[in-house]
């Protein structure tokens, strides 16, 4: 059954996987200047992120927005998705009173900018209303458009935000929609089918939604206590109390709301996949290392991962320190770890592991002579100690050892194994396996 | 950031995770005698599984129902969920003509019983109709109740099937429902909000659904070409053409339909989690091994995995060969692999790896004396060769090595590392890492 195991992580039947949204910017937060459609947003836009949910539907003790993915809470991913958009001026996160300290810690620890936390109300609409009011309090310019989003929809992309903001300014209100997955039915009070709706006429109302500041303020001023208590749909309030008919915009499937326990696994998988598309191989320039790196590039490419081969991280190549999440250091005939230590130092200097755990793989190519003399020339304890220290700084270090050989078939088998192990380590990002020296 | 990495696989904030349905029976297929509510189903029930989808919404080339999870297509998991229910007499899978051979291969390879494949029609209703007609053709008794389910909802449990079957017999029709996750809105033809529905009055119609054979046959006899062409809801046909009002039954969240790419990751995660709840430690009976096993039991328990400690797989303990997916063989001061080879032989004899890949971990506890003499006394090539052979038979073999020491702190650290590595290997089930001898 061997063939069925290959590339299981990304599902073996998945050669043409669609791209996930670019949730991991290569530039610094706030420096994006992407302007979809060639035009820019020339009016102030702010964001309200209700994050007061209690996590009932996942069956977890921790609310979903504070669940940790690769060491970082979900809410931080969502904040990051907005923070990197240059034309968004500020983000107000609305959290339950008891989570205010936690939220403040998160903002500090992950160095979020543009963010304020305000306490929520007893219902969704009361919380959003608090958030909208807080936008008027700040020192910054009053926004023209307010985007409302959910803390538990981390994968929103700039293109959709742009469309929502523009349509909201034009129309007063705009919202993202998705086709219905299931037929919707009306039930009798006794639990029987009353009638089913014609699926094509209806849509699921999703987030983000956008409103002009005036429309959303007016809607919350005029709406009833019953709306505050039982309502869930902002577009409905805009229609009923301001006569504003929202423009509906179809969003991508990644908009979905992390709701059930299975969604946590789905979100983690999207994050891991986005971090695992490419890696950078550092050869040191030696001929043997370059030969190995080129062979690896081909073999890992067949496993759907792109490798860039570079001699070092200096000069022009220092840019990889700002854009890559995975590094492979090839060392030839040198059993000391100095080269990989240098990579770790560079990564720390670049503060690269702040938002995501980095993977560093040390591939040690030993001469066939060494093999017969000592069997295993690297002291396992050395790499384990180095890895334990790196893990504290959010860098996952692993080792792979292979032996030079003139036997072509054996060599190719070894290279293939290095490729498979590399791909698995990068995709799985397992903290338990750091410091291991694996054999190829 | 070390603390954030612990137990990431099952989400660090998740101490009270709800159980997933028991999709992996411990008995042989077809031998279940579970009778929810204490009563049995005393009428013939058959199942129609439409599996003709083309996978458009996942963006994959392979339709979802044929996507491979741990080496087995999704449709096989769904078939298994029905096959293990004793009171279900037969299952008709409806597949596109071009996939008939593939389906036949799947049934043969995974030794499914009770299953026939029939070719589908051009729409969902035509396919289901073909399946229902095929039920009348067989040699077996004509069913009293027909359950219709989706091939891409693999996690249906017996309890819900029972409720659906009983309600269908009583009422003529029954269907599973779930609360709506998003507000449903009606749109104008120009893409604006028309109105939003009051969420509490509506439900999502899911699968399974059940009908008496007479109702579903009559519905398909009477319904129009337009229904066949554009309709999606069987409950609607029963209501419109037979005047049968379906009983609606709320199902668990695991009922969901694998629709988007993210759902593939969610499904894989549920399967892996279900396989990773427990493991069985075989000690050979030596005092040192038992001491280690007991310490491991405690440490792995803290990582949310249950360990049973047994001396061997003989007599009463042979039952573990029929119910466990993960085995840990502890060997003391013996650098040969004979004990783990014996476990592999037993597992193969039990045909245990037919439906799921098994994990076997060889934990080698070496005396502190050996350490100073040879450094590493097990030849890595030996376990790699054994693992390569085992992988072909769907068994994933890994090794972990630790050294006996009188230094308590060092010993406890080693045991903790064995626990973390064990837990990670079992949860990740990575084929790329088989044959590695990891250091604890």
Automatic annotation (TrEMBL), chains A, B:
Pathway(s) served: Protein modification; protein glycosylation
Keyword annotations of the record: Cytoplasm, Nucleotidyltransferase, Transferase
Domain (D-ribitol-5-phosphate cytidylyltransferase C-terminal) ranges: 277-418
Subcellular localization, as worded in the UniProt entry: Cytoplasm, Cytosol
GO biological process, any: isoprenoid biosynthetic process
InterPro entries attached to this UniProt entry: IspD/TarI, ISPD_C, ISPD_synthase_CS, Nucleotide-diphossugar_trans
Disordered: region residues: 1-43
Quaternary structure annotation from Swiss-Prot or TrEMBL: Homodimer.
This protein's name: D-ribitol-5-phosphate cytidylyltransferase
The organism's taxonomic lineage, starting at the top: Eukaryota, Metazoa, Chordata, Craniata, Vertebrata
